[in-house]
Amino acid sequence: MGSLDLPHSSSFKGGSETFLRNVFENILKTYLRKNPTAKTIWELVQSVDNEKICYDHFTFRTLKVDGYGIDSLSSFFMDYGYKIGGGLDFPKKKLRVLWFSPPDAQVPNDNHGLENGPLPRLVIAEVLVDELSLESQGIVKKYLKPQGGKQAVLSSTLGSLIWEKPTWADFTQLAKESEFAAWTLIHGYTMNHLAFAVHRFKHRFKDINCVKEYLEENGFKLNSDGGILKVSQDGLLLQVSSISERLAVEFADGVTEIIPASYIEFTQRLVLPEFKDMPVDEIKEYHRREAFELDSANHVMESTRFATQF
């Protein structure tokens, strides 16, 4: 991947960590408000054994055109100390993804949640709009006006589109070529999914297989693309995700249709081989498997797969 000319990161200053955490809290509230099934799972996890939760990553989708791509979100978070951790390219999906590691924050092992716990990694994807057909490019660019991407973070916290809502005709035409682009055009910067840090759970759910069994027993639909349990090639990154719930959305031309919204994920990062003999209470996040796996990520993205009618 080439250089991206993204802003340089800086460390926390003054009360900025509190502000950053408040931004995340509002992004989470919007996501839960707009996705009832994800909220139900989120509440269930906390209710079992009074579990305390931490987050592995928050994921967003963007469109690379007129300043609406990855940088429209990442520049804000990098101002608060986030740094590029790595990237993944998905040529068939005409998609690029960058993930960002959080700034150092002094967090005791027993702290949890967004208010006091570890900050989540960020995963931000962008559709490479210029690689789509001219017809699809025209649809996207009709809605995304120059400079609008500057309001990306505000849009994420409010759950409101920066651009005008698309018509059903434009949405379905775009979805024929890129479901990813169509999803982003209608949902905008609302968080695509969050991932729990399974390795930080204290009780029943500290084993991702127990999470999988519990969700299946309670009737939640899980993403089976590539297997319900996604395992990295080194066996140290384990992921399970739900299938996006389908919600009624009214489009600009008055049509109301059921389309995929957001989903929820569970991620377990195992301890790296060189640290396997360390006492459990001394293991930190950097002793565990970092980064993401291309194949697993490709399968997880299928959680928002559209209906065949597109």
TrEMBL record:
Its EC number is 1.13.11.93. Its cofactor is Fe(2+). GO terms for molecular function: dioxygenase activity. InterPro entries: HGLS (IPR009770). Keywords: Dioxygenase, Iron, Oxidoreductase. The keyword Lyase does not apply. Signal peptide: none annotated. Transmembrane segments: none annotated. Pfam families: HGLS (PF07063). Belongs to the 2-oxoadipate dioxygenase/decarboxylase family. PANTHER family: 2-OXOADIPATE DIOXYGENASE_DECARBOXYLASE, DUF1338 DOMAIN-CONTAINING PROTEIN. This is 2-oxoadipate dioxygenase/decarboxylase. It comes from Eruca vesicaria subsp. sativa. The lineage of its organism: Eukaryota, Viridiplantae, Streptophyta, Embryophyta, Tracheophyta.
